[in-house]
Amino acid sequence: MTMKLSRKEVEHVAFLSRLALNEREAEEFTRQFNQMFEQFEKLNELDTSQVEPTAHVLQMQNILRQDSVRASLPVDEVLANAPDREDGYFSVPRIME
Amino acid sequence: MNIYDMTLHQLRKMLSEGDITVQEIYSSFAGRIEEVESKVGAFVNLASDIAELQAHKAADRWSEGRNVTPITGLPVAIKDNISLAGVPNTCSSKMLKNYIPPYNATVVEKLAEDGALFIGKTNLDEFAMGSSTETSALKITRNPWNLDYVPGGSSGGSAAAVAAGESPAALGSDTGGSIRQPASFCGVVGMKPTYGRVSRYGLVAFAGSLDQIGPITRDVHDCAIMMNALSGHDICDSTSADVPIPDHTTGLKQDIRGLRIGLPGELFHEGIDASIREAVYAAVDLLTGMGAECVELSMPHLEYSVPVYYILATAEAGSNMARYDGVQYGYRASGAEDILDMYIRTRSEGLGTEVKRRIMLGTYMLSSGYYDAFYLKAQKVRTLIKNDFDRAFTRVDLLLSPVTPTTAFKAGKRADDPLQMYLSDICTIPANLAGLPAMSIPCGFDNGLPVGMQIIGKPFDEITMLRAAYAYEQSTDWHKRRAVITG
């Protein structure tokens, strides 16, 4: 499997990542990602058809607790870091026309 | 000996014998910071107000003989991606430069209860993404052994602070070597505990299935003391393990006769500098002389660790970094036309190049068409790597290897070559992928720069690692050397 990543594709992934690249970044990332993908393809040397994937090294299980009310941070403290707020809410630019 | 050159256990002994006060300890470290910080640059923010208050309380605990722990009255520096309430938690990013967390990380809470003094928050690669602390958007940290060289990363500020005598101990975080590699570059001891041993609550997430908080100290005894303070299950972190916690300091002095130590050939390959391999082999001879049985073995899948790591870690990072959108906290770009424009401008202006590179790689790994080819494939090879460790640990108790292919490199030397930087993580990454405990301890010097060796243990068997590390350390004096800061 060889993949030749185009600059246009890189710019599309930048948009999916909610990033805008400048000229230098777009050029550099295209070159570097192609190099890295070559490294990644080394994994194809291995036959993994009979291997289970590992997402997490610990045995994960659901952890449940009583749905009881506990103290939480006061709204003012939570909003203290907000770039913009109004009436106890986070305020953002217009979403709908 | 200067107070600021001492270890936690030395300071603790002097406190308990009444030869020193908490105030004298705090003043010595504060004075040392005053003296060398402008050259070393280990801290993003100092927390003098908090530390002074804690010093008063700790002094009271000592004078009343009440509730005195092994670290009461002793300074600990905290990596600036771990929440300390009321002090900025910048992650060395423009994005969080002014973010002040309203709560403490669980490890911070534990240390505070034990009476530690939080002298400051240490510099890191932006969001812990890097191996030299050069991707920090806020400042430059230098290697105390030679100021032209990098301290390693991403916990470079923590390792440099301990090596420079600015703090006797520090917290780091390790996703692919971010505690062990800077500890190695700075000639100090660093441990990444077993995944789940230490709560991650309050650690800003990079790659949640790999991240772990751990200590950086001047010797192995101090590492054990810090592990006692940090370990334990936490209801706020469902990935923290509910397993018994041993006293990590007991057993340090037991001999190592009959201990079986494996040397994975894949981590001694020709890409590792000869001087580093020689230093580690010399340590092997020493351990053998003390009765350990050292055997060479092969773990064939370790050579695939770097691609597996950079696929999985970037995929997790890409998801984690989605939260930085300018809505709830952190930087927000001005002049946006609509909300999409606001997201894009905020992230493009607030994040640095290395972080953008990893977010985008991660977005690729999880996008359709690439998911099976890369992400799923990497998860399967992760299983093979884990199986290699499981097999090795049926034959041996510990594994020993170099930490890094080279000693610290010159500042600016690799900044433009990310692939080269990624490849240099080859020895440290496997333990993260398998969730195993691993530590770096000093084992020599090359051209005046420290060399480290890595010990990898079985899950939740930090004690055996510490015992071997302590036995080695007691028969060498690398850990007693202190950096002379010139320039």
Describe the overall structure:
The complex is a heterodimer of chains A (97) and B (487). With 97 residues, chain A is mainly alpha-helical. Chain A has a domain of 39 residues. Helices cover 34% and strands 4% of the residues of chain A. Chain A is built from 3 helices and 2 strands. Chain A has a two-stranded antiparallel ribbon. In chain A, strand 1 and strand 2 form a beta hairpin. Chain A is flat and about 55 Å long. Chain A starts with 6 loop residues before the first helix and ends in a 7-residue tail after the last strand. The mean pLDDT of chain A is 90. Chain B has 487 residues and is an alpha/beta fold. Chain B has one domain: Amidase signature (AS) enzymes (Alpha-Beta Complex). Chain B is built from 15 helices and 11 strands. In chain B, strands 1-3-2-4-6-5-10-11-9-7-8 form an 11-stranded mixed sheet, sandwiched between helices. In chain B, helix 8 links the parallel strand 7 and strand 8. Chain B starts with 7 loop residues before the first helix and ends in a 13-residue tail after the last helix. The model of chain B has no long low-confidence stretch (mean pLDDT 97). The chains are: A mainly alpha (97), B alpha/beta (487). The interface between A and B is large, with 48 and 69 residues.
